[in-house]
């Protein structure tokens, strides 16, 4: 049995639902019509561990960072204190640490700067290797690293200083491009 009270409550409930739906529809329409300023961030992540797979489904790159901020302009991402692992054909990967990094155009190019440390543990073919510089650009798909700045190359018993570097992280080849000066000191 319908009473005036039940009818009134039902009408009020239908009216409230209709107004809520209209409000949601209106706010979605306004948001989609607004233009996004490409200089403003459009997303961020915290405590990130991301793994990029190659065409065979194997891990090619791993990124660990406390914070990433993405900007739509040039598809750039600012990365705080990144720790990047480049997996390669050798049993040991390359590790890259820095205070800051910025990837552009997705991950086609990653620029690391401020206390950049590149490290490769020893394996069957190569001794433990560390490279230190203040700025480094990595091309993940080609697994190429380069810089025009001073570089310190460290292996057991050997330290070489140079300016400019080109490295093939997959093959493990490193070229210091100019002004190289080395120290050799065998351990006893």
CATH hierarchy: architecture of the largest domain = Sandwich
Largest sheet: 6 strands, antiparallel, barrel
**β-strand number:** 11
How much helix, percentage-wise, in residues? 10-25%
Domain module tally: 2
CA gyration radius, whole angstroms: 27 Å
Structural class: alpha+beta
User: On the 0-100 scale, what is the average pLDDT?
Assistant: 80
Beta-strand portion reads: over 45%
Distance between the termini: 100 Å
- What's the tally of helices? 1
The CATH superfamily of the largest domain bears the name: Lipopolysaccharide (LPS) transport protein A like domain
Shape: elongated
Q: What is the top-level CATH class of the largest domain?
A: Mainly Beta
Poorly predicted sequence stretches spanning 5 or more consecutive residues: 29-33
H/E element sequence:
HEEEEEEEEEEE
The CATH topology label of the largest domain is lipopolysaccharide transport protein A fold
Strand order of the largest sheet: 2-3-6-7-5-4
How would you describe what is shown here?
There is one protein chain. Helices cover 16% and strands 53% of the residues. It contains one helix and eleven strands, in the order H-E-E-E-E-E-E-E-E-E-E-E. The chain has one helix at residues 4-33; strands spanning 43-53, 59-71, 76-80, 83-86, 94-97, 100-104, 109-120, 129-139, 144-155, 158-168, 173-184. The longest helix is centred in the N-terminal third of the chain and has 30 residues, at 4-33. The model is unreliable at 29-33 (pLDDT under 50). The chain has two domains: 1-34; 43-184, Lipopolysaccharide (LPS) transport protein A like domain (lipopolysaccharide transport protein A fold, Sandwich), CATH 2.60.450. A six-stranded antiparallel beta barrel has the order 2-3-6-7-5-4. The chain is α+β, with helices and mostly antiparallel strands and 188 residues long.
